[in-house]
Structures are given as structure tokens and as C-alpha cells.
Amino acid sequence: MKFTAAQIAxxxxxxxxxxxxxxxxxxxxxxxxxxxxxxxxxxxxxxxYIYETEASIVIVNKDFKPDKPVKTTLIRxxxxxxxxxxxxxxxxxxxxxxxxxxxxxxxxxxxxxxDDLYAGPFACIGDRVKLGNNVKIYPQVYIxxxxxxxxxxxxxxxxxxxxxxxxxxxxxxxxxxxxGSDGFGFAPQxxxxxxxxxxxxxxxxxxxxEIGANTTxxxxxxxxxxxxxxxxxxxxxxxxHNVEIGENTVMAAQTGISGSTKIGKSCMFGGQVGLAxxxxxANGVKLAAQSGVGTSIRKEDxxxxxxxxxxxxxxxxxxxxxxxxDRLMDRVQQLEKxxxxxxGHNSEV
Length: 349
What we know:
By secondary structure, the chain is an alpha/beta fold. The chain folds into 3 domains: 3-95, MurE/MurF, N-terminal domain (Udp-n-acetylmuramoylalanyl-d-glutamate--2,6- Diaminopimelate Ligase, Chain: A, domain 1, 3-Layer(aba) Sandwich); 101-313, UDP N-Acetylglucosamine Acyltransferase, domain 1 (3 Solenoid); 323-348. It is built from 4 helices and 40 strands. The strands form 6 sheets. Strands 8-11-14-17-20-25-28-31-34-37-39-40 form a 12-stranded mixed beta sheet. Strands 9-12-15-18-21-26-29-32-35-38 form a 10-stranded parallel beta sheet, with no helix packed on it. It is flat. It starts with a strand and ends with a helix. The mean pLDDT is 95.
């Protein structure tokens, strides 16, 4: 399907500069742009490519000022990156709008579903499951008994939802993610063995949550492990039992959250962050990659780095001193030699 510059500009509330009738049928990176594709320019370091790209249309910020003639048609918008993201969302809806129920999909007893359901081959849906409108369940997805899935949610191939898991509206669960597996609860015994503590809680995701591939979220021992509205979790993240993650918090890959830790809203965690259990992390906290957090952070909008994690400004000062350790050691050794000579001279006197 093709779209003209005029149609795209209307969708994005943008202004066309060039041929409003030029059409595109695909998207591209600006450095690899080809005819009949659309790209965008948001990062200034890619500016040289706009004079070379073969893309038929490029989305740019309204304040972009070219240094020389541009041969492509421009669409000027307030925020080129956000506008392109919106365009990709529309493109994905056109190309990935699957509907219909495969004859190889399995449904348990008393399961109900809304309009426009897609269920691919070998999807397995348990008893008493409730599925909203426009839900998409790709092949080999498992949905356990008594799960609930809200409107417009998507479960990609191989996702697993244990019994009782609840998804809100417009959630996205990527391939291989596991929601609702047992929390890591074992009681030590007098004979040095461990007795499993039954995990009878559930996992709840509120609206607009996205869970990356192969991420795991454990069910609560009692109550619920909760991921609040708008939170986004990358691939390969471990969320332990009874954790709560606040609204619009984002986490990069390989982060691990120990049990019963409460994380505020609008937090940002880099890759490989680790948090101990039973902590409280305030709203807006930012943790740099590989931070190891062993105590609660109660100051909102704080920035921490390192392991053990400390305030970023303090970490940077320590790091700069650490880089000068060799020179400091040389100075100490020189001072020791000088002191030794002075002490030797005084002893002779």
C-alpha cells in the first residue's frame, strides 16, 4: 500500500516541503534510503545523509535548516522522532493486522473472547479465560486457566502465561516471556534441605505495559506481583515475587529485581542493574548500567551509579581519583624517599 506525502503530513500534522504527491510504500534508515521509502532525521550527526539519501520523503523537525539543496521531499513536524514512531505504529497495524482463529488452536472450557480475535496454530488457551476485543495470540502461546487479557493486547510466539495472570489493555508480551512462574521461595530446614513455599499469588499487568523477549515475572507468594500502567521492560529481565514496578518506569536488558522490592513511577534503569529484596525506590530514580543497589533510595529523581550504587556525582569524583592512583602512588613513593633522606640526615647530625 502506498501513501503520498500529503497523506502522511495530514496524519502527522506536518507541513510538506517539496512534492506533496510523491508516494512511498516502505520505510528506511536515512543512510540507506531508497526510492519509494520514507525516513527521518532527528539526530544531528546524521544530517550529512539528508543531502545524499535516495529516500523519497524524510521527516524533519520544523527548525531544521539545510546548508545546501535537498533533493528529497521533507515533512516538517514538531518532533521528528516521535512522528516517525507514530508512523511506524500505523505501518505495523497495516502489515501485522492478523485475524481469524486457526483450526489448530485449542480453547478450554468456559473461555470467552471479544471481536476480531487472532489465535495462531498451536496456541493453547485454558479454562475460564477472558479475552478482550482485537487480542492477538500468535502460534505456540500458552495461556493458563483463569487468565484475563484486555483489549488490543498482543502475545507473540511462545509467550507463557501461568494461571490467573491478568493483562490490561494494549499490553505487548514478546516471544519467550514467562509471566506467573513460581517465585523463588524455599524455607531452610534443620537437615540443610529446603522446603518449597507454595506460591499462590498472581501477576498483574496494567494497561500499556510491554514485556521483552525471554523476560520472566514471578507470581507472588500471596497477593500480586504488579507492573503498573505504561511500564516497559526490555528482554532478559527477571522480576521476582511480590515486586511492584511503578507507572511509566523503563528497564533495560538483564536487570534483576529481588523479591518484594517496590519501584516508583517514571524510573529509568540501565542494563544489568541489580536490586536486593524488600527495597523502596522513589519516583524518577535513574540507575546507570550495572548498578548494584543494596539499600532503599528514597530521594525522588536521584541518579545513582556503581556497585554498591552511590549518588552519581560522588561516583564520578571517586572514579576520577581512582584513575589517578598510579600517579598518586608515584608521588607517595617519592615523598617517602625524600622523608627517608631527611630522617637519615637528621640522625647523622
